[in-house]
Specification:
- The protein is globular and about 60 Å long.
- Helices cover 38% and strands 20% of the residues.
- The strands form 2 sheets. The protein has an 8-stranded mixed sheet, with helices on both faces. It has a 6-stranded mixed sheet with strand order 11-10-9-12-14-13, sandwiched between helices.
- It has 15 helices and 14 strands.
- The chain is an alpha/beta fold and 399 residues long.
- Bound molecules: adenosine-5'-diphosphate.
């Protein structure tokens, strides 16, 4: 059984064809600059060199057609016909209050995705375009929407409500949703399996630390809190996002600089985080680490502040759950940066967290990195959102 996984951005489309019998990738690729001059498709069949196709892609429909052509190409293709694809799983950013889990796409589902354009203005329109392009290219084939917000929907009211007048929740569904949900769901589930934890009761904190970064707390695989909010701006310090901030700072800067709220939010989303704090060194954590090592004070502070906030969230979520059985690190920084994992865990010694330096000397590999006598299991669990999407898709088309 083969599942095609599609992740559409406003000008990009990532895909993976996954063999679900072995959970292996058959081919993957990326369409870039859709709707912009100079568009290209990079297609990589497993174990072979990548192929670059430079062709105009005025929209996602054309991009999907080129993906279909690449998958069936006599030279670098991997299937004879699209009949071999059982279903298509789509990453969809925002499911609003409607979707607690993945769902087979129907006209009603598409309408809800459309109704959530306000909540996910950059992603939801692109996600819908991807779904409609697949419907046109492969009529009758099941499409499944896997929502990035679904995991956060199990949060209790006390965790998802903002302390603002209730009318805004009632009128506009203003609440905390959380993002990176597919990754948090996958990693917390894998941590329970890998750590031999109680599938019903295990208290797990997942630190998804990439350019975008978030922490989640879950009990028995169900999210009870997560650090991103109505949008991905809340929570941790990220590559370019500020994370938590006193909203009065916005008013102060806007008044002083004479800028409007849109410009202010662009600053908080695109020019803040470690990029902003370091005085513009970089949004890439490797560059920040290099600059810090070379003695750049601002880069050093940015890095320390990033670690500090992750540690604080772990402490808060441990209290929220009245304990924690496992802490799992994932995504670019979480999977690759042993120094970050160590620094974040240092001040958790009070709750019995003990990192094993030798075990922690690892990149991108599933592993327990805490000492055998650590009170909390600390793990590195590489995330795999595409596989999580494919698993959900398979489960739904099998029902
Ligand atoms: P996103 O999907 O949000 O773009 P990723 O999960 O791909 O982010 O993570 C990208 C981040 O991971 C970058 O900031 C990059 O610097 C960081 N990263 C990757 N490898 C390392 C490493 N060895 N040490 C520190 N940071 C790393």
């Amino acid at each position: 059984m083969k599942i095609l996984v599609i992740n559409c951005g406003s000008s990009s489309l990532k895909y993976q064809l996954i063999d679900m019998d072995h959970e292996t990738v058959i081919a993957k690729g990326l369409c870039e600059r859709i709707g912009i001059a100079g568009s290209k498709l990079t297609h990589t069949p497993a174990g072979k060199d990548k192929v670059v196709v430079e062709k105009d892609m005025p929209n996602h429909k054309v991009a999907i057609q080129l993906v279909m052509d690449a998958l069936q190409d006599p030279n670098h293709g991997v299937i004879k016909s699209t009949d071999e694809i059982s279903a298509i799983g789509h990453r969809v950013l925002h499911g609003g209050m409607k979707f607690y889990k993945s769902t087979v796409v129907t006209e009603e589902v598409k309408q809800v995705i459309r109704e959530c354009f306000d909540l996910g203005p950059l992603h939801n329109p692109a996600n819908l375009m991807g779904i409609e392009a697949c419907e046109a290219a492969m009529p009758g084939k099941p499409n499944v929407a896997v929502f990035d917000t679904a995991f956060g929907m199990s949060m209790p009211e006390k965790a998802y409500k903002y302390a603002i007048p209730e009318e805004y929740f009632e009128k506009y569904s203003i609440r905390r949703y959380g993002f990176h949900g597919t990754s948090h769901m996958f990693v917390s589930g894998e941590a329970i399996k890998f750590g031999n934890l109680d599938p019903e009761k295990a208290k797990v904190i997942v630190c998804h630390l990439g350019n975008g970064a978030s922490v989640s707390a879950s009990i028995g695989g169900k999210c009870v809190d997560t650090s991103m909010g109505l949008t991905p701006l809340e929570g941790l310090i990220m590559g370019t996002r500020s994370g938590d901030i006193d909203p009065a700072v916005l008013q102060f800067i806007m008044n002083k600089e004479g800028i409007d709220i849109n410009e202010m939010l662009t600053i908080l989303n695109k020019k803040s985080g470690v990029l902003g704090m370091s005085g513009g060194v970089s949004s890439d954590f490797r560059d920040i680490e290099t600059a810090a090592k070379e003695g750049n004070h601002l880069a050093e502070v940015a890095l320390e502040a990033f670690f500090y906030r992750v540690t604080k969230y772990i402490g808060a979520y441990t209290a929220a759950m009245n304990g924690v059985d496992a802490i799992a690190f994932t995504a670019g920084v979480g999977e690759n940066d042993k120094n970050a994992r160590k620094k974040i865990c240092e001040n958790l010694a009070f709750m019995g967290v003990k990192i094993d330096d030798e075990a922690n000397d690892v990149r991108g590999e599933r592993r327990v990195i805490s000492a055998p006598d650590s009170a909390v299991k600390v793990m590195l669990i590489p995330t795999n959102e595409e596989l999580a999407i494919a698993r959900d898709t398979l489960a739904l088309v099998h029902e």
